[in-house]
TrEMBL record:
This is DUF6310 domain-containing protein. Residues 181-303 form the DUF6310 domain. The lineage of its organism: Bacteria, Pseudomonadati, Myxococcota, Myxococcia, Myxococcales. The chain crosses the membrane at residues 101-129. Residues 1-21 form the signal peptide. Pfam families: DUF6310 (PF19829). It comes from Stigmatella aurantiaca (strain DW4/3-1). Keywords: Membrane, Signal, Transmembrane, Transmembrane helix. PROSITE patterns: PROKAR_LIPOPROTEIN.
Length: 305
């Protein structure tokens, strides 16, 4: 096993716990150099770890925010300094300014922000991470050496196939009856792709909270939210339209629609143990919402269309 050193670099933050059971470094799914797992191992190699990087190797197949959250406890924080360069962390709560929460938020940011995470001294790549990187590169080399042409299994002629009974995808003659009892909406966050093609809106949802699942909305309690903030149980609804430019009639209609929507979302979030924060682009929009819902947590993001 060889050790390498990395120069002290870039960004970090997050907290939580790792499970047990160390995987074999050779259990690497995708041999592509662009694999998220490989990218996570390379990113984690820049930082000092107290467990030789075992948690990182175990969680490397997840997206970086989730890896950072689960392995933050294993980071050697005595050798790391966190700077809230973008000022996006610590906006949801008054107590979010607590150093551990801000540090976790900074470390878990999906993108690397120069100067946000500073490592004190040189870093020797953690043993488990180095083994994982080496094993990954060996697997990638073997995959590249394999013949590209693969023999496809012969297909049975359509004329010889036995048709399945109509109305059944499995061939059952008597398909199961439809469900009569609706399922209870899940409180487990389910990431789904951002709806629509509003790029400025989606960028604000990803970067401002910041979003635990970049590029994703999240379903919780049967409602769809724009983001789940890293490091805390906070769901976000983002509004980027220019409320100030509407005439009085349009403002009233838009406000009534938003109030109904936000009441449903706040109830769903609260039932699942989450808080709801609404991000708006302007102070006028915040004032209008707070006038209708005085207890609603609203922050001005400054995001524009």
């Amino acid at each position: 096993m060889r050790a390498r050193t990395c120069s002290a670099p870039l960004i970090l933050l997050l907290l939580s716990a790792c499970a047990t059971m160390d995987p074999s470094p050779g259990e690497l799914e995708d041999p592509s150099p662009q694999s998220p797992r490989f990218a996570n191992l390379q990113r984690a190699a820049q930082y000092p770890w107290t467990d030789d990087g075992k948690c990182v190797v175990r969680e490397a197949s997840n997206e970086w925010p989730l890896l950072a959250e689960r392995c933050f406890h294993a980071l050697d924080r005595d050798r790391v300094r966190f700077r809230n360069v973008t000022k996006r962390c610590a906006v949801a709560y008054a107590d979010a300014a607590a150093p551990a929460v801000v540090a976790l938020c900074v470390f878990a940011a999906p993108e690397i922000v120069v100067g946000a995470v500073i490592v004190i001294g040189a870093v020797v790549v953690a043993a488990a991470i180095q083994e994982g990187i080496d094993a990954y590169q060996r697997n990638a080399s073997r995959e590249r050496a394999k013949p590209q042409a693969q023999t496809q299994p012969a297909q049975e002629p359509l004329a010889n196939r036995t048709p399945k009974p109509k109305g059944s995808s499995t061939g059952d003659i008597f398909p199961p009856p439809p469900e009569t009892t609706p399922r209870r909406p899940s409180c487990e966050p389910i990431p789904v792709r951002h709806a629509g093609g509003d790029v400025p809106h989606n960028e604000c949802a990803d970067k401002f909270p910041p979003n635990r699942y970049p590029g994703m909305d999240v379903f919780v309690g049967g409602e769809r939210f724009d983001a789940l903030q890293v490091g805390v149980r906070v769901l976000w609804e983002i509004k980027t339209h220019q409320f100030d430019t509407y005439n009085a009639f349009i403002r009233r209609r838009e406000l009534a629609k938003e109030v109904a929507q936000l009441n449903k979302e706040r109830d769903a979030a609260a039932a699942c143990g989450y808080d709801l924060v609404v991000g708006v682009s302007t102070q006028a929009h915040k004032d209008a919402l707070r006038g209708q819902l005085p207890t609603l947590n609203v922050v001005v993001t400054g995001c524009t269309r």
